Amino acid sequence: MEADDAALRAYYERGMERERLSDGRGDLGPLYHLLDRAERVRALRECARIVRPGGPVLAAAITRWAARIDGMLRERFYLKYPAAVYLVDEIDRTGMMPPLQEGAFTAFCHRPGELREELGEAGLEVADLVSVEGPAFILGDLDARMADPVDRSIALEVARAIERVPELVGFGPHLIATGIRP
Fold this sequence. Notes:
This protein is about 40% helix and about 20% strand. The chain has about 180 residues and is of the alpha/beta class.
């Protein structure tokens, strides 16, 4: 990383939970703290540069509908943060999620296609794009279901069956994309 590269320096300075494998086998990083598309693509290009040919770059993203489905429907953020009711349409439209409280972070929320495009623009071949949590995250009794062997088996089977379905991949709050350096 060059010292005068402001976008990449910002990537590291923003406290990202980023891990780089020192032997060039892979790179992992969340993109949601990078608000500008050009910054995200530059960060992905840097990851592609340092990973060996054929190596993976894993990119984590918050989905565009996380605020509405996870925040509003499941977590009921509107009870603690009444302003959230007025922000959710804008988040859906623009992808920009402002902080809901003092000390919270601003995030960019991706549509699955946007994440694919950004990896491609960075010179990576998208090998996979999955929903991290799957639809079971919204269940109020998920802990109980995961404790029961039959319920757990069904919940995991449903998640596996639809984690890559293009029409559903954005339903969960987080995405992981795997890009391969050619």
